[in-house]
Amino acid sequence: MFPVGHPNFKNTQLPARDGKAHGNIQRSNRWPNSSFFTNWKRKEDKITWDIEVLASGNYEVEIYYTCSPEDVGANLRLNFGSSRLKGKITEAHDPPLKGMEHDRVERMESYVKDFKPMNLGTIWLEKGSGELNLKAEEIPGEEVIYFRMLMFKRVD
């Protein structure tokens, strides 16, 4: 269970490292640290987190992603209990993997990308425990996005 909205902190990160992939979504590496999710190609696929919201309120949500120009336009939906937030990927951002240029030996851990933050919108989160899930409602290209992290910022 991951805490969201601690009263002493304005921001909460939910990285891919702590998420669960469902369907055909894959982690960029078998070790979760610094990993991200790939192969998100179907509406049935989703990413979930078991969370505990510590303080009810409105939270601005940023998603950190990459996607190719052909995949722009994916509609995403974030759910927690009866709260819903919808957003659309409107800008391509497709940087290469990096890190290998510093390695003497090919690493076993995940290489990284520069992920782009995008404001997904504001969602009301009620205090309590449950499953937070992120799904795609529309997939105009071959893949939704490469997903790195959600950032929650309490706004009231």
Question: How would you sum up this structure, described in words?
Answer:
The structure is a single chain. The protein is globular. It has 156 residues and is mostly beta strands. Helices cover 0% and strands 48% of the residues. 29% of the residues are buried.
Task: Give the topology, please.
Elements: E1 2-4, E2 11-15, E3 20-22, E4 26-27, E5 37-38, E6 46-53, E7 57-66, E8 75-80, E9 83-88, E10 116-125, E11 128-138, E12 146-154
Parallel strand pairs: 1-6
Antiparallel strand pairs: 2-12, 3-6, 4-5, 6-11, 7-10, 7-12, 8-9, 8-11
What is the total domain count?
1
Separation, N- and C-terminal Cα atoms: 24 Å
Q: Which CATH class applies here?
A: Mainly Beta
CATH homologous superfamily heading: Galactose-binding domain-like
Question: Strand percentage, roughly?
Answer: over 45%
N-to-C order of helices and strands: EEEEEEEEEEEE
CATH fold naming: Jelly Rolls
- Rg, please? 16 Å
Helix/sheet category: mainly beta
Output the keywords.
single chain, Jelly Rolls, 4-stranded antiparallel sheet, mainly beta, 48% strand
Task: Provide a short characterization of the protein structure.
The chain has 156 residues and is an all-beta fold. The chain has a single domain, classed as Jelly Rolls, CATH 2.60.120.260. Helix content is 0%, strand content 48%.
